[in-house]
Specification:
The structure holds 3 protein chains of 3 kinds. By secondary structure, chain A is mostly helical. Chain A contains 17 helices and 2 strands. Classes of the chains: A mainly alpha, B alpha+beta, C alpha/beta.
């Protein structure tokens, strides 16, 4: 068991490192750098930037060094908690990111909770009452969710909300709370606004989970230990919930590892459509402006977030499945 | 000691009737078995028909469109769809009402309304803008056209977009682009997936470890931020075709992991099979064992996995283009069309801009059904 | 052994059919037999003859798309609920049937590995069986579970009770299964191929165990198997099934020494014996079991029967007729069929 944990942990570290390299590379793929686009936007507004000034800016941001030096410099800064300056905003990156990362985590978790809460009972129902009307209906809805990209669903939801309910379903806060400090009321306001993003974000994943749960449970229902459970005198429902569901839950739990990157990823686009104050819209702007530190940090954080989440889900899986726990014995 | 057995004729008669059906099954080829099982899957069959229909659109996109997709005219911007009147005084003579614009005396904005006095007749197989069919020959015949005047000015079955371009025609071209990008991406993913998955599964050892780690790392990375980064890195100056291919490569760079997993899993389990060992003992070369003995066993699974990978590609391209990071105007794809629908206020006024939502959902559903059907059928001896 | 006059369980004309898309399978098509208290009834037949489905029907755990369509299963109950009850008439998931399952009738079956849930300890599953039917605290139930494991011969039961099924060997697992089935002192133990998945030595041990437990508790055992050797060794009374019907039944000695039905005769003949002549072909039963959708008309065995009477055997179904004292067969060779 310890070997398992160590292995997963090392892999997580390795993945985070790979992500940091990847995000750094991505930022530097664009020809030119921040200073180039700065000059461009300056000249668009009429002022010129001299060669000397450009060189000075470059030196200041360390943009004239070879790329691996820049990378090491960046890593060094990060380990001290300094994520650099967001050049376009001229404020520290962390300040610009602010609440957004936390909010990204919040809606991602909300989406996952929604997914589980819905997919689990529906999956069980579909498997136990296979080929019934309910099964077909749920499968159909599930497929719709699967086939609709998150942003499209967000668009449709916004449209319906706007046209028929005259409500703006976007945003995570009512206008008065937007820049307010964190109080209990603000938290409650957030919770009130969570359902729409959580559902939109989670629906596609829900469809997948329903199918997985249904397939797993169908497999398990055929197995002899279910007969044993019934033969002992357990009622049908208790026998199913206690035994095959419990076993089918194992592969289900391991799907968190797959679900988390998917949801975090989807939140980027959905946030754009629904105007949620998360990391997504910020990332898009940063990429277009080639704001290296900001974009790179965001990608790094998102990646780390998902890796940590995946690692935690691995631990969870180990906890609930005795077969993995006792592997080493 | 043995007593007389049942008369042979009696025995044979029973044997024939009971085993005729079984006979047929036992001599069918793998593909026949797959086809029979696939046929039973109603949804998959429907999906296959729908996909066939979509790819017909891909081939005949130019023919099915009636307005030049890039003919913009601000005056025609955001016109609502015109319902087609099929019968004119009891005869089948389809037409639409012409759209006239007049200035609203209160707001001074141009307002468009159907003019019941002017009928514009629709003709089938009518001449319209010129195009090259499949790049082969020039023609200007389209499925629909108007009797007089230009279709661009008069016919708007699905309305127009902000620049006054007919949405129906653009939708045809969008379908063409979106569905072909998906194919190319999947082809690349397939190649990478089979190659790396095969190396990993067949040779095992260090190959397996390294490739497995790479796959796990790639799977833990949230894809969209990465794609956004890669796509944003594409220089603005590149032409449409180059961007097109760059996008397909970017999307397939992550998509191959799923296929590689399937291939690796298959190779791993097949490696242990007795028939592989028998082939080795008979003296077959490595290549022969792989291609003649192992590949046919999992080919059907690969086909199923590939079909299921397509929807993901379509969603990726659509999402990226929607963000403005994928295909950009003047390229036309479902994502590009949906970009105009980003704004809720403009959506409320012009809901027809959401029209591309339907082909996206339907095509993805169809691919999923077919993929499911193929996957179920790929296990001919399964339950 | 003398059969006590009142049977513990009477199966009368049981018919269990499976209604699948591909067709109708008559898994059990008119089975009738009795089990008497304290005796071991061997139910024997080839794969697919309906033995397991009969067992499941008795316990009312037949899986969809199967259903009992006709017949009675009369159970004589002891204790406060004395009297006879027809198990077919009870709702399968109802309280009464559930109190019979596991308490008055226990089930042990073939696959010890997959018969236990892989994610719960063996002990917790036995404790559950105990607490379902008896009012015991968790601690008391656990002690009883340990005691049961000891009775079935599991070494170090206090340790084993907290282990998972995959940590035990095949033989130990089967013993644990038996412990679980016996936890509430059932009057009838149904053992469906209990030793088929075990090696021969373990098989012998398990059979010894079953015999010992039967003597100690005076319970009846319905032993389902296709292994004639096991039947000969363990049973007092034997039921031979073919294609869902009972073709012969009788005391074990009569069945083995003077089988009446041609099928039984053919079965016994096909057992390789140390005493048979060398270089003589091993007799087999001609033909093969018909596909369930293609049941032969009349007597189900007639296409393979050496004593086939054309015009009779393929036209009507024979009834059960008494051949000798206590031995009955369903064959036109005997008067009154």
């Amino acid at each position: 068991m310890l070997a398992y944990v160590v292995r997963r942990f090392l892999l997580a570290i390795l993945t985070i490192w790979a992500i940091s390299v990847l995000s750094f590379v991505v930022i530097h793929l664009t020809p030119g750098d921040y200073v180039t686009s700065y000059i461009a936007s300056m000249s668009a507004s009429g002022s010129m930037v001299s060669e000397a000034d450009a060189a000075a800016l470059r030196a200041q941001y360390g943009l004239d060094q070879p790329i691996y030096v820049q990378y090491v410099r960046w890593m060094g800064l990060i380990s001290q908690g300094n994520f650099g300056m967001a050049m376009e905003w001229n404020r520290p990156v962390m300040e610009v990111i602010g609440d957004r990362l936390a909010l990204t985590i919040v809606i991602s978790l909300a989406a996952i909770v929604f997914t589980w809460a819905v997919a689990l009972p529906i999956g069980i129902y579909s498997a136990v009452r296979q080929y019934s009307i309910g099964d077909y209906i749920f499968t159909f809805i599930g497929f719709i969710g699967l086939a609709t990209p998150g942003f499209m669903l967000a668009l449709v939801v916004m449209y319906i909300g706007f046209t028929y309910f005259n409500a703006n379903v976007g945003g995570l806060f009512s206008p008065e709370y937007n820049d307010a400090p964190w109080t209990m009321e603000k938290v409650w306001n957030l919770i009130q606004h969570l359902p729409v993003p959580a559902v939109v974000l989670g629906l596609a994943g829900t469809a997948q989970m329903i199918r997985i749960m249904r397939a797993n449970l169908l497999d398990e229902l055929r197995k002899p230990y279910v007969v044993t459970a019934r033969a002992k005198g357990l009622s049908e429902m208790r026998a199913i919930l206690k035994y095959p569901v419990r076993v089918a839950l194992n592969p289900f739990a391991s799907t968190i590892g797959y679900l988390l990157p998917y949801v975090v990823s989807g939140s980027i686009i959905v946030s754009l459509v629904l105007s949620l104050p998360t990391v997504g819209p910020l990332l898009l702007k940063a990429l277009i402006a080639q704001d290296m530190f900001l974009a790179g940090t965001i990608i790094l954080m998102l990646g780390t977030l998902t890796v940590v989440g995946t690692f935690l889900s691995d631990l969870l899986l180990m906890w609930i499945d005795p077969r993995i726990r006792l592997e080493g014995k | 000691m043995a007593e007389s057995l049942v008369p042979d004729s009696e025995l044979l008669a029973d044997e024939i009737t009971t085993t005729a059906a079984e006979e047929r099954i036992s001599v069918a080829t793998q593909w026949q078995l797959m086809w029979w099982r696939f046929r039973k899957h109603t949804l998959a069959m429907i999906g296959a028909v729908v996909i066939g229909f979509f790819y017909l659109i891909v081939i005949f996109a130019d023919f099915l469109a009636y307005s030049d997709p890039s003919a913009s005219e601000a005056q025609r911007g955001l016109l609502p769809p015109q319902p087609i009147q099929w019968m004119d005084e009891g005869r089948f003579d389809p037409y639409v009402y012409a759209v006239t614009g007049r200035r609203d005396p209160v707001t001074f904005k141009r307002v468009y309304a159907p003019d019941p006095d002017r009928k514009i007749r629709i003709r089938f197989f009518a001449p319209g803008f010129e195009y090259k069919f499949l790049g082969l020959f020039r023609t200007n015949i389209h499925l629909l056209g108007v009797e007089s005047g230009k279709a661009e000015d008069s016919l708007f079955i699905l309305g127009t977009d902000l620049q006054g371009r007919d949405l129906w025609s653009r939708l045809m071209y969008a379908t063409q682009t979106s569905l072909t990008i998906g194919l190319v991406s999947v082809a690349i993913s397939l190649f990478l997936g089979v190659l790396l998955g095969g190396l990993s599964g067949f040779y095992g050892g260090i190959w397996d470890t390294v490739i497995q780690r790479i796959i796990e790392i790639l799977r833990s990375i949230p894809t969209i931020p990465l794609w956004m980064g890669l796509a944003a890195a594409l220089p603005q100056e590149w032409d449409i075709v180059a961007v097109y291919f760059a996008i397909t490569i970017i999307i397939s760079l992550i998509g191959w992991t799923e296929l590689a997993r399937v291939v690796r899993g298959r190779f791993l389990s097949l490696r242990e099979e007795d028939f592989v060992m028998a082939a080795e003992l008979a003296g077959c070369s490595r290549m022969r064992i792989i291609f003649r003995h192992m590949v046919p066993s999992f080919l059907s699974h690969i086909i199923a996995a590939t079909t299921l990978a397509l929807p993901a590609m379509i969603i990726s391209e659509t999402s990226l283009s929607f963000l403005g990071l994928g295909l950009r105007p003047p390229a036309i794809s479902w994502g590009v069309l949906l970009q105009q629908a980003q704004n809720v206020q403009s959506l409320a006024i012009s809901p027809w801009l959401l029209a591309p939502v339907f082909p996206v959902i339907i095509s993805i559903l169809a691919f999923n059904f077919v993929g499911d059907g193929l996957r179920d059928a790929a296990d001919p001896y399964g339950i | 052994m003398e059969r006590s006059p009142a049977p513990l369980l009477s199966v009368r004309n049981l018919k269990t059919y499976f209604f699948a898309d591909e067709g109708l399978t008559k898994a059990v098509d008119g089975a009738t037999f009795d089990i008497h208290p304290g005796e071991t009834l061997g139910v024997v037949g080839e794969s697919g003859c309906g033995k397991s489905v009969t067992a499941r029907s008795i316990l009312r755990i037949v899986e969809k798309p199967g259903r009992i369509v006709e017949g009675e299963i009369l159970l004589r109950r002891t204790g406060a609920n004395g009297g006879e009850v027809d198990l077919v008439a009870l709702p399968a998931d109802g309280k009464e049937m559930r109190s019979i399952r596991g308490k008055e009738i226990g089930l042990v079956f073939q696959e010890p590995m997959t018969s236990f849930s892989p994610v719960h300890t063996v002990g917790s599953q036995i404790v559950e069986a105990i607490r379902l039917h008896q009012r015991l605290s968790k601690r008391e139930a656990r002690e009883r579970a340990i005691d049961l494991l000891k009775q079935v011969g599991v070494p170090k039961p206090e340790r084993r009770v907290d282990e998972y099924a995959f940590e035990l060997s095949g033989g130990l697992r089967q013993r644990a299964m038996i412990a679980m089935a016996l936890s509430c002192d059932p009057n009838l133990l149904i053992a469906d191929e209990p030793t088929t998945a075990l090696d021969v030595t373990t098989q012998a041990q398990i059979l010894d165990l079953l015999r010992r437990l039967q003597e100690e508790r005076g319970m009846a055992i319905m032993l389902i198997t296709h292994n004639l050797g096991v039947v000969a060794e363990m049973s007092d009374h034997v039921v031979v099934m073919y294609l869902g019907r009972v073709v012969e039944e009788g005391p074990v000695d009569a069945i083995f020494h003077s089988p009446a039905h041609p099928y039984t005769r053919a079965l016994l003949r096909s057992i390789p014996s140390i005493r048979s002549q060398s270089r003589v072909k091993l007799p087999t039963i001609a033909g093969s079991i018909p596909h369930p959708f293609n049941r032969p008309p009349g007597c189900p065995f007639h296409p393979r029967c050496p004593s086939f009477i054309p015009g009779t055997c393929n036209q009507r179904e024979p009834g059960m007729v008494e051949v000798k004292d206590g031995q009955r067969a369903s064959c036109f060779l005997y008067n009154g069929a």
